C-alpha cells in the first residue's frame, strides 16, 4: 500500500483549512442593479470589505426574483443576506427561509426607528432605507404648490397630472393612498378607482415607468406626479425644477430590508453586514446618493438632502405601510379593475 507522507497530510490539511477560511470570509447578497447597486457598493459593501477583510459577492436580483430564487434554493441557499423592497421578508420569514435576529447582535439597532426593526425576532430583517411615496411637482409651474393628496383633485392642476400604472410598485402605493384619502381601504378600492376616473376625465395621463414621468415633465407640461422621493432628485439632476412633498394625509412607504438567510454557515459575518446597513454613516450616504429616507434616528443630513426625504421623528411619523401580503394576494384582481378603469 502506498504511504502518504506526513508532509503531504499536513499540506492537504492546511489547504482544506485555507479553503474553509476563504469560504467563511465570503458572503453572497443580492442588490438591485444600476445606480442602486453602485450606491450599495459605495455606502455599505466596500466599507464592510475594508473593515472585515471579507469579500461580498453580489447577485443582481430585484425583490421578486430574489425571493423566487430563495424559495427554489430552500435546502441549499446561495444568499447569506437578502434584500427586499416589496415586503417579501414577511412571507419568507413565515416560511422559515429567514433566521430570527437577536437585536443585541446589532450595535446600531437601538437607534433605528421602532417600525423599522419591529419583527426581528420573527425573522423580518431591519429596514435600512425607505422609498417615500408623495407628490413630485414642478416648483415653478405648479400654483399653488401641492401639500396634500387631496390636492390632486384641484382643478388648477387639470391636464398636468401624471399617474403611474399599478403594475409599477410605486404606482401601486400611490394609488392605494389616493384610495385611502377618498374613503377606501384594502378591502375596498372602488373609491380610488372612481377618483382616478375623475382625474383622467380632467386630463390626467397614465404612464408605466419612471422614465416616462421624466418625459412628461420635460416635454408635455406635466406638473405633478404621485411617485417616490428619490425620483424628484433624478428629475432635478436632469435639469427639471422638481420638488417633493409628503402628502399631509400620510406617506406610503416602501421599506428596503436586509434579511438574514437561514441555513447558512457564516451568519455572524452576515449580521455584521446588516449592522453596517443600519448605521447612520451608511444611511447618510444612501440619502445623499439616491435620496432614500434613513431609518436610523442618528443619521444627519444636509438641508438640501433632508428636503427630498422623510427625515427625522416628524418626517417618519406620517409613514404608512400598506400590508404587502394583502397587496400580493389581491394584485391580480386590482390590476384587472385598474385596467378597466383607465381603458379609454
UniProtKB/TrEMBL annotation:
GO biological processes: thiamine transport
Gene3D superfamilies listed in its UniProt record: Periplasmic binding protein-like II (3.40.190.10)
Keyword Signal attached: yes
Leader sequence segment: 1-22
Record keywords: Periplasm, Signal
One cellular component (GO) term of this entry: outer membrane-bounded periplasmic space
Molecular function GO terms recorded: thiamine binding; thiamine pyrophosphate binding
Highest taxon of the lineage: Bacteria
InterPro entries assigned to the protein according to its UniProt record, in alphabetical order: SBP (IPR006059)
PANTHER family: ABC TRANSPORTER SUBSTRATE-BINDING PROTEIN (PTHR30006:SF2), THIAMINE-BINDING PERIPLASMIC PROTEIN-RELATED (PTHR30006)
Name of the protein: ABC transporter substrate-binding protein
Organism of derivation: Nitratireductor aquibiodomus RA22
